[in-house]
């Protein structure tokens, strides 16, 4: 290693000619035997690669106070001295070396990652120095010669340890219930060897350890890592109790997960319901029967409608070509198409000129205004995946009864609403008043009577193609009987 060689490397890497301006230095796989003093000129280096050389010591690095990452794997290093001036060092990789003892790093208070795999560490005394390194969170000791279970005492004493890799050591085969023991003793681990440690595993492991070594803690006491180690070492660990506690904890975790999933589903369904109510309120505000109702009343009606799906499965609606409402079935109120589209058919053939209702359209308005039971004159068939909701007459009356003046408003609107047959419905934005009968109701004292065509009323019989007006008695009640002629269809 010479100053000229370092200068040539920085030139090849298209770095700065001034050594102190470089924050990275790539000196890997050069075959150098030592780190020479010429490297001290590179005072601004933050990441230094020394991999794959023949270095036997870390030296002459004290002039790099900004050094954060040092990669010195695949060398011949025997100890970790020489880092006294690198107080900001965060990551140190000394894997595949000849290190027999971890030492001289307790002053590195910023050190978070230490990779020392494939070295010559043998017993707990070789890693005892790690007790003085509380900042280390990631520790790789794979493929060393650690055999004594007492090594776990050292690892368990590291408060910041989160990632631990010790597979490939005789210790992993010698310790009974290796994974559970390590997870229980190093309680904050998030990753052990080849897979992560999730919270569920941590909980079941704690339950297993707590029940198995409960006699060490006494009644009401908490089992510590030391107590667990003692119970496992002297053979007093109660395995049956530990397995029973682990099983109980798994059942508890499963129940908690089901409860959490249920709450999430309910919250999601609530969001869908609220959105559906807002959409339905926009539609219902344009229904002729509900003109003039207050916003609060419309919202309550929308809430009733959104909670009454015609499809039996509230999650899945009607499949394509599925019958939503069969011919002859009672029309119980206002049917609103929330998704997809529906058409009308008789004996499997489209009718009513191929009329199709899309999302946001509805039918059955006239059936709300009378006690006469109306029946569907054709099958209502889903032309696509569809959802349909029902606002029944009872729900309308119950809801409007709680809002002042709402019943009177309905009473005033019902005359125009009744002139529209359920199968003659048009989109609410292009509603047309269609007279449904050539009969009319005249007001008589005490009851209503139907006048036949040709009877005189005011100006006499209507002209061909026209209808008689409809008048109502009992104006203070919404649900009054209407002669059947008022619901005769054109088809």
3D architecture notes:
- The protein has 491 residues and is an alpha/beta fold.
- 28% of the residues lie in helices and 13% in strands.
- The chain has a nine-stranded mixed β-sheet, covered by helices on one side. Strands 10, 12, 13, 14 and 16 form a five-stranded antiparallel β-sheet that branches.
- α5 (199-212) runs antiparallel to α8.
- The longest helix has 46 residues, at 239-284.
- The protein is elongated.
- The relative contact order is 0.06.
Helix and strand arrangement:
Elements: H1 3-12, E1 24-26, E2 47-49, E3 69-71, E4 91-93, E5 113-115, E6 138-140, H2 151-156, E7 163-165, H3 170-174, H4 178-185, E8 191-192, E9 195-196, H5 199-212, H6 214-217, H7 225-234, H8 239-284, H9 295-306, E10 323-325, E11 333-339, E12 341-346, E13 349-350, E14 356-358, E15 362-363, E16 379-382, E17 387-392, H10 393-401, H11 406-418, E18 440-443, E19 448-451
Parallel strand pairs: 1-2, 2-3, 3-4, 4-5, 5-6, 6-7, 7-8
Antiparallel strand pairs: 8-9, 10-16, 11-15, 11-17, 12-13, 12-14, 12-16, 18-19
Features:
single chain; 491 residues; alpha/beta; nine-stranded mixed sheet; five-stranded antiparallel sheet; 11 helices; 13% strand; elongated; disordered C terminus
């Amino acid at each position: 290693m010479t100053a000229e060689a370092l200068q040539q490397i920085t030139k090849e890497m298209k770095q700065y000619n001034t050594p102190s301006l470089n924050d990275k230095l790539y000196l890997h796989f050069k075959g150098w035997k030592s780190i020479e003093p010429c490297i001290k000129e590179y005072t601004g280096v933050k990441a230094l690669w020394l991999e794959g050389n023949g270095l036997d010591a870390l030296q002459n690095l004290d002039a790099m106070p900004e050094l954060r990452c040092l990669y010195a794997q695949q060398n011949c290093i025997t100890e970790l001295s020489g880092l006294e001036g690198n107080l900001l060092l965060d990551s140190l990789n000394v894997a595949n070396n000849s290190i027999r003892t971890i030492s001289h790093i307790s002053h590195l208070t910023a050190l978070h990652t230490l990779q020392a795999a494939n070295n010559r560490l043998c017993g707990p005394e070789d890693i005892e120095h790690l007790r003085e390194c509380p900042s280390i969170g990631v520790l790789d000791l794979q493929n060393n010669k650690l055999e004594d279970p007492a090594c776990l005492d050292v690892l368990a004493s590291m408060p910041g340890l989160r990632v631990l890799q010790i597979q490939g050591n005789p210790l992993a085969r010698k310790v009974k219930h290796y994974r559970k023991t390590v997870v229980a003793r190093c309680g904050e681990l998030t990753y052990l060897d080849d897979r992560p440690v999730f919270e569920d595993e941590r909980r079941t492991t704690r339950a297993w350890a707590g029940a198995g070594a409960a006699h060490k803690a006494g009644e009401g006491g908490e089992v510590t890592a030391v107590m667990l180690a003692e119970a496992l070492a002297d053979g007093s660990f109660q395995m049956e109790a530990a397995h029973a506690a682990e099983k109980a904890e798994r059942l508890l975790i499963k129940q908690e997960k089901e409860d959490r999933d249920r709450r999430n589903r309910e919250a999601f369904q609530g969001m869908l319901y609220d959105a559906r109510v807002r959409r339905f309120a926009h539609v219902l505000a344009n229904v002729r029967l509900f003109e003039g109702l207050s916003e609060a009343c419309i919202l309550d009606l929308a809430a009733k409608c959104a909670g009454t799906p015609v499809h039996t499965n509230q999650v899945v609606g009607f499949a394509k070509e599925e019958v939503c409402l069969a011919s002859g079935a009672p029309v119980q109120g206002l049917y609103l198409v929330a998704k997809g589209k529906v058409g009308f058919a008789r004996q499997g053939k489209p009718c009513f000129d191929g009329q199709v209702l899309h999302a946001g359209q509805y039918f059955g308005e006239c059936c709300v205004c009378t006690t006469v039971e109306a029946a569907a004159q054709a099958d209502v068939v889903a032309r696509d995946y569809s959802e349909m909701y029902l606002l029944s007459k009872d729900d309308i009356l119950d809801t409007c009864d709680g809002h002042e003046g709402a019943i009177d408003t309905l009473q005033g609107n019902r005359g125009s609403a009744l002139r529209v047959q359920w199968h003659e419905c048009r989109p609410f934005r292009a509603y047309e008043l269609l007279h449904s009968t050539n009969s009319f109701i005249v007001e008589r004292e005490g009851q209503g009577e139907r006048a036949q065509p040709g009877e005189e009323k005011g100006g006499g019989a209507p002209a061909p193609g026209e209808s008689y007006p409809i008048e109502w008695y009992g104006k203070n009640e919404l649900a009054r009987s209407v002669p059947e002629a008022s619901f005769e269809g054109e088809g």
